Amino acid sequence: xxxxxxxxxxxxLARIAxxxxxxxxxxxxxxxxxxxxxxxxxxxxxxxxxxxxGGDASDVFRADEPRPGLSREDALKGAxxxxxxxxxxxxxxxxxx
Length: 97
What we know:
The structure is a single chain. The chain has helices at 4-14, 23-41, 72-76, and strands at residues 82-83, 86-87. The chain is mainly alpha-helical. Strand 1 and strand 2 (86-87) form a beta hairpin. The protein is flat. The protein starts with a helix and ends in a 10-residue tail after the last strand.
């Protein structure tokens, strides 16, 4: 059985501040998680082949074919600020000293 003291210990290890009024509720939730994991451990899986994922694995990528993109004017149309054919953005790096 998981009690308040164990929840406090886990919270301390995880560096999570848990209010005292939450400890009992979290103890119950953590105990339910442990019971569920224990029930999974009891399954007979000797004749089950390991899987990398549960569904059918197939190539989900589209063919890599060139297609037309936006024109420069269309790409810059919604820019809030621009200089000639470029987006104008605030400086993020300082000038070297």
